[in-house]
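Good morning C.,

I know you're traveling, so I'll keep this short. The sequence:
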Amino acid sequence: MDKKPFITLEPLDMTPSVKQDITPVLRQRLQSAELFGTANEVVIEHAGEEYRLRLTRQGKLILTK
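The tokens, ready to paste straight into the viewer:
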């Protein structure tokens, strides 16, 4: 009869090793209708560059430079 090795498991230490900041992150939330209005495309200027945010016929968003 083969004997399997006996393994002892110690309880896991669930104490966090690094103190974590649990402050909720506040993000500005916009509805896409607020951005687009009746248009299908808006131009966003970021760091001196123009980006185009387009709304597709399928209701998806495409961002291009």
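Safe travels,
E.
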